[in-house]
Amino acid sequence: xxxxxxxxxxxxxxxxxxxxxxxxxxxxxxxxxxxxxxxxxxxxxxxxxxxxxxxxxxxxxxxxxxxxxxxxxxxxxxxxxxxxxxxxxxxxxxxxxxxxxxxxxxxxxxxxxxxxxxxxxxxxxxxxxxxxxxxxxxxxxxxxxxxxxxxxxxxxxxxxxxxxxxxxxxxxxxxxxxxxxxxxxxxxxxxxxxxxxxxxxxxxxxxxxxxxxxxxxxxxxxxxxxxxxxxxxxxxxxxxxxxxxxxxxxxxxxxxxxxxxxxxxxxxxxxxxxxxxxxxxxxxxxxxxxxxxxxxxxxxxxxxxxxxxxxxxxxxxxxxxxxxxxxxxxxxxxxxxxxxxxxxxxxxxxxxxxxxxxxxxxxxxxxxxxxxxxxxxxxxxxxxxxxxxxxxxxxxxxxxxxxxxx
Length: 406
Hints:
Blueprint: H1 15-29, H2 32-46, H3 48-53, H4 58-77, H5 88-100, H6 104-129, H7 135-140, H8 142-183, H9 190-200, E1 205-214, H10 226-231, E2 237-241, E3 245-251, H11 257-264, E4 271-274, E5 278-280, H12 284-296, E6 302-305, H13 310-317, H14 319-330, H15 338-353, H16 358-365, H17 369-383, H18 390-405
Parallel strand pairs: 4-6
Antiparallel strand pairs: 1-3, 1-4, 1-5, 2-3
């Protein structure tokens, strides 16, 4: 098929062949109604997409096909009305079928059927009306005839794709508008929630997650094809790229959050935060804020489920307290030489992670239990806090988290 929508020039065919096309085309136009009937039956028979979609009535389909046949014959015969575009009906058909959702492949096959009807009509007219007088010239013009038909097909494809792109952009804008409304907390309006659910392809209620991947620079790509990755696992989701982040709403169905986020893993290449489970679109606004916070708890690529990182979330939610927290928790421990300070903090972390057991901490640190006990005594002396005291242990734990983030 031609890749250009420009019609071949009449000079592309010999003078006798051009005259034959002019004569046969004018005669063929007299049978336009029967040609339209014939083509309509063929399209309905061989292209079930038209009937299955139920978007075009037979009468409307016939009228469209009739217009295309008429313009095609006029183009071949050089009798297109003054001021008319030889490919106007083709372009109109491309736009119409894109709006109706008829697959482009089906449209092109129907168009080729139309080309066959025109060619067979020209040949039959030569033989039945002119006793085969124009058969030789018509065969000479065959290449030109199909180049004209292919050029019209190319025009159809051009406008089909342009309309398809326009519709995608329009639909994307619509989805963005509804997502923004939900992020602004307007999902409590039942009517808006229903429209948003329809546009986004999500249920109006049921367990969902809001997922956020911050985009720090224009080159960042923290999530790659998340909809497809989740869809391969049968998980429905809707995703939207915004200037500052990528936002997704994930319908859990009967899955738990961990399963859904594990399924998302192959798409993750940056920091991704997930909200607690929500059950209505009215909760999306708050869930978005929490998912943002969850993402900020990460310092490297990965997925953070807020409920699993609440201590870290508390710290990132109050950054002005982080430095003070470290100073209050560790006191004079921070004045030790760096190597010694690092050893003490590593020992403290091992003791806390071991539930306060020096024996288990020693195993983690590959040193003697008595060494751990000695270091722990120095830590408690320098900080003025005891690991065995719940409140002190909490403060020391938060202090370690704050230093880890720093």
